[in-house]
Design brief:
The structure is a homodimer. With about 200 residues, chain A is α/β, with parallel strands linked by helices. Helices cover about 45% and strands about 15% of the residues of chain A.
Chain lengths: ~200, ~200
């Protein structure tokens, strides 16, 4: 029902497109956007464009960055012999918050998901294999989410890494099964890092 | 903690500024925005700007519109003798959904709220009084939210309209006390319109 001016209906549609935002919430957000001062709304729009322009993937670990290297890869004090594999940049943030890990990361940007029609080639596995085959890495820690897809992805990568003779570990099951990495509390993550097991 | 690239942190901040959006949700929305194709994100940003540029207030009833008159005021079949006073454009949508009202509207763009520091001059009461004093209006229906602020606003306006000899009614208490107009179901709204009482 196109009751409001089309420019407003379009905005409601755009907000409703966002994940987890229903029609009512989209309406509320669109009305809010109409009500705030022009410069605030324009700055909101420009921030979206700036983020799309300015945010790139780190050339080493594929974490998000505004330069060539992300803040972790740029840090020369990090242990470059250990690489922690996470499903997405939020995973990096979660592990960093535990202050228990001083190695580097590899961001997969997804997990293998037959239901979601995401295969091994759709995520950044090739890039991980290339990093490991370049040498200098002693251990790869799998920190995918503790659910079926994360588990599948970890096992798949672990098999691919076997020929390189690199130690492949995964986070201990201190992390609650079926949960999402990003919501794990720091203490649990710390214990999960300490108790990681060879796989 | 500025862990992500600043362009991304800025976008998270912008989303977190929206009403009802917490930090975690803002992060999720910002990451979504980073992940979708460039043209989709740019179109989102442009839609915000277009809405800010294109959406104005109807010169008669102050409902949102993209021209001079809103879709209701433009409709020549409407009964111009009855004006329904609503707190915001969502109120117009709610009443229209009941298909029980064929008059015009007046959008206050707020309610009197001593706590929110919103006085009678901060909302569009003057404009309503001007419409009524111009003549041609037989009845003003108060459809403010059935809470203290809505009630206060309705009583205040009712007193101001008294000298003009216009009939002032309000929605019957079919609408649940303490609720918000926008979430009332259509049937309840219909009964509330039928049972309106003089005040």
């Amino acid at each position: 029902m196109d009751f409001f001016p089309s420019a407003l209906e379009n905005l409601i549609d755009k907000f409703a497109m966002l994940p987890g935002i229903g029609r009512k919430t989209a309406q509320r957000l669109a009305f809010y956007m109409i009500a705030i001062p022009d410069e605030d709304a324009i700055s909101f729009a420009d921030t979206i464009k700036a983020a799309k322009r300015g945010v790139k993937c780190c050339t080493v670990c594929l974490n998000l960055t505004d330069g060539d290297l992300c803040s972790v890869c740029k840090d020369t004090r990090r242990n470059t012999k250990v690489v922690c594999v996470v499903p997405d940049p939020k995973g990096v943030l979660a592990i960093e918050r535990s202050h228990e890990f001083d190695g580097l990361y590899h961001v997969l940007h997804g997990v293998i998901s037959p239901i979601g029609n995401i295969g091994p080639d759709d995520i950044k596995i090739k890039e991980l294999i290339a990093r490991v085959s370049d040498g200098g890495i002693d251990e790869v820690i799998m920190a995918t989410n503790p659910d079926t897809e994360g588990e599948t992805t970890a096992r798949y990568i672990s098999r691919l890494l076997h020929p390189f003779g690199v130690k492949v570990t995964r986070l201990a099951y201190g992390i609650p099964v079926g949960g999402s990495l990003e919501f794990v509390d720091d203490a649990t993550l710390m214990r999960a890092l300490e108790g990681r097991m060879e796989m």
